[in-house]
Amino acid sequence: MHEFSIAQQIVDVVFRTAQENEAQLIERVVVVIGELTLLSEEQVRFWLQEFFSHKPISREACVEIIVQPALIRCSHCGFEGAPPCPGPEAHFLLPILACPRCGQSGVTIKEGRECLVKKITVKK
Amino acid sequence: MKVIEFQEGESFDIELEEDLLKRNQQLAQANGQLLEKHGILAIDVMGSVGSGKTTMIERLSSRLCQTKTIGVVAGDLTTTIDADRIVEKGAQVVEVNTGKECHLDANLVGKALRELPLEKLDLLFIENVGNLICPAEFPLGAHKRLVVISVTEGPHMVVKHPHIFRGADVVAINKVELAAPMKVDPEELKKDVLAVNPGAQVVKTSLVQDQGTKDVIEALGLMAGSGAEA
Ligand SMILES: Nc1nc2c(ncn2[C@@H]2O[C@H](COP(=O)(O)OP(=O)(O)OP(=O)(O)O)[C@@H](O)[C@H]2O)c(=O)[nH]1
Ligand SMILES: [Mg+2]
Ligand SMILES: [Zn+2]
What we know:
The complex is a heterodimer.
Chain A: H1 3-20, E1 25-34, H2 41-52, E2 62-68, E3 71-74, E4 80-81, E5 107-111, E6 115-123
Parallel strand pairs in A: 1-2
Antiparallel strand pairs in A: 1-6, 3-4, 3-5
Helix pairs in contact in A: 1-2
Chain B: E1 11-19, H1 20-37, E2 41-47, H2 53-64, E3 70-76, H3 81-87, E4 92-97, H4 106-113, E5 123-127, E6 144-150, H5 157-160, H6 162-166, E7 170-174, H7 179-182, H8 186-196, E8 201-204, H9 213-219
Parallel strand pairs in B: 2-5, 2-6, 3-4, 3-5, 6-7, 7-8
Helix pairs in contact in B: 1-4, 2-9
The complex binds guanosine-5'-triphosphate, magnesium ion and zinc ion.
Zinc ion (ZN) is lined by residues 74, 76-77, 79, 99, 101-102, 104 of chain A.
């Protein structure tokens, strides 16, 4: 739901970085969205393309979104890996409660919660 | 330092690692530290539209204002209706109109904190925007998270929106006097909450009748005599 404002923030970062580097043209924007955020890749892409299409400097920009898979770590047994696959009827983002190896709760999320501008390609 | 010269018209990559959600987390931490410095216990009040968040803050304020100086940050899309209601209960209120935003974020709350007399306050309520999805992703720096839901939202609202409950310390199931006509069993809702978050304290309330308010105060650790530290 907050994809709109997140996209605005991404656009701010991109334009600021382009300006700091005296770029004339923004060709590519690479954004990373964690699998465990509540952000929809589709909606973020839509708004980014919408915002970029209004400025000559970014009109041609190609938006690339990388979905970062989730990585969790268990503090009890040291398990590190993907969270368990939820059942068919469960929401696929259902909170991760227990370690898939030892069953204890207390897993921490190491990856999958990020939302960042990773790279932009520009032309001077 | 390595300086790379670029030819006119040449493309180049700029690597940057600016995490937008992490930025909110950092600001939330700063809010938390500011509040702690002033000995203020802050409670983020979340829940769906119309579930009873403002009524909850009114009820809690009425009971606690004898012993504590209370501040409220009222997040509202466009109006001051909620803020006006709370002012009547004797709390210091700062209104934050979020405009188009579906949630409060740590930056907005940080700005609101600058408008409150922090040195005087013991307790701060932050009324989040009515929404069960987005606020879950934006910590504000509060010490406790109170989620207010109501039986009028139907029997499946917890299983459909697990995230907001995962981070909750206390969940109030409100409007329980309407459970029978709504054909909703509050016990089932409670089970759903505990399945997502076994550590949560679940309280049934009927805030129009001021029922359950004391249990919420207890669950939040705000009993008279217990200081702002809790
Ligand atoms: N029947 C019943 N109505 C209640 C109860 N608690 C609150 N209400 C009513 O529900 C309506 C919404 O209450 P609010 O406290 O304004 O809800 P809110 O969550 O702050 O609403 P927004 O800020 O607009 O999202 C009001 O008309 C309240 O009087 C309750 O326990 N039972
Ligand atoms: Mg309200
Ligand atoms: Zn384990």
